Hints:
heterodimer
Amino acid sequence: MQLIQWLSKPWPWYVAGPLIGLFVPALLIMGNKNFGISSSLRHVCAAFVPARIPFFQYNWKKEIWNLFFVSGIVIGAFIAASIFNNPQPVDVSPALVQSLKANGIHHFSGLMPADLFSWQNLFTVKGFFFIIVGGFMVGFGTRYAGGCTSGHSIMGLANLQFASLVATCCFMIGGFIMANLILPFILRL
Amino acid sequence: MQATKKKQAILIETNTDFEVRSLDTACVNDSQLSHPWWYNFKYLVAGVLFGVILVKSEVVSWFRIQEMFRLQSFRMYGIIGSAVVVGAISVWLIKRFNVKTIYGESINLHPKKFNKGQVFGGLIFGLGWAITGACPGPLFAQIGAGFTVVIITLASAIAGTWVYGKFRQRLPH
Lengths: 189, 173
């Protein structure tokens, strides 16, 4: 019981970060797999809606390991959120809480604000933006960039790739622009 | 002996599926072995561990992502930075000691070629990341953690990938 309590607290960055980094050698040693997640979205397209598009004409069955990996993520997250659940709200900086409150966010109890990410919101302007537009940009952008945070920022940087450094810098620039300059306006809609 | 091995290595190199590789060297299966499908269950187990870490580190939290992009906390930088350091040391060790996979294959690491897609695509992904509070891994984790509406976000991300594939030839790379 004590172990569960101990595991239920948010893990410090110096524990979580190195553990995430270890997936790079773990997947390589388990079977020559390059750590990366956004490709799973491409494999889903290739498997279900290839529509004769050359980009989706490849042997996706060879990459099915990636779909097993992401299915595992869903299960693992479910376990973490049910067995090792942290009842406390995410301990974010007071400055963030204050500025979000000023912009109409009132639910700080979970990992995500229920004000934005809920089924009731799906058909509102805000919900459309946060759920559908955001998702589309993640899927389109990662594939255009050839990888995401895992493929470029972790696997690519770990392998000292210049292209991945460029990609990571652009991820951050895009994020800074959105979070600081654009989101405050959208939150007030 | 050494020469034939080298020749084999080159052969394997040229045999790789071009379409998967082109502009997209991330996340590819480099194994030349074919195993029964259930060998993939070990990746499911790895994924379960990864999912637990993603949730317990709170990197799947929308709030944490906002904090990161507003420079209000060191936490996310510490996580990504230490992950990169551990990954880089591991990759260096694998190369240095020519570590093999558990099936005895040599480990292949491919260079990623620079193209403009990393700039344009990277910016678009960055904008989306700050909106959803999730990169692709955390999208799966948010669903597992009970935010079922993220299934729609994931479906939209798959649609985004498909649209990219459809119009890829017309986009600058």
